[in-house]
Specification:
alpha+beta
Length: 178
């Protein structure tokens, strides 16, 4: 089964890389240290969706191809590498930047009892339209109620969300401050 998925995923990855070539936006990958299971840091892989010019304001760093990748969630595909390495799972709480590690309460830190996921309960229940408190509550619900049926429900909701091409609002999300 995995072998059957390898060919279409490889073709999709090559088409995405070709898209970068056509836009002239390089580098292609965005790597960032994130918090993994048991608080262990790892390097998360994503396709870059903003120009790499750090001197420009955020809204001027956006480009069409990156917006498309973010809206379609195709920017997350490189995280399959993180899954293959055992740093992430398909489903679990989204991994947060290492800079947040000192801001979690004891209860919020419980989200790190499991591997972080490419998708998760908080993502399919509101993603960036809900507060940080609600995200943590949903993450903890997942951690405390992991089951095959819950994972199936999350996968189904993820496919529906991906196919809906909803506008991405992640660039306007407030940073977590504890």
């Amino acid at each position: 089964m995995i072998v059957l998925l390898f060919i279409p995923i490889t073709v999709l990855l090559l088409l995405i890389v070709l898209g970068y070539g056509l836009t002239g936006e390089f580098s292609i990958l965005f790597l960032q240290e994130r918090i993994g299971r048991n608080g262990k840091p790892f390097t998360l892989w994503k396709f870059r969706t903003l120009s790499s010019d750090q001197n420009k304001p955020l809204h001027l760093r956006e480009f069409g191809w990156g917006n498309f990748l973010r809206q379609s969630n195709l920017d997350e595909l490189p995280q399959l590498w993180n899954v293959l390495k055992g740093e992430m799972s398909f489903i679990g709480p989204r991994p947060l930047p290492v800079e947040y590690s000192t801001l979690f309460s004891v209860e919020q830190n419980q989200r790190h009892r499991v591997r972080p996921g490419i998708t998760g309960w908080a993502q399919v229940c509101g993603k960036n339209s809900i507060s940080w408190q609600e995200k943590f509550e949903l993450d903890l619900y997942y951690v405390n109620n992991i089951s095959f049926l819950l994972d199936l429900k999350i996968l189904l909701k993820t496919f529906i969300l991906v196919l809906s091409f909803k506008k991405d609002t992640s660039l306007h999300e407030k940073k977590f401050t504890g």
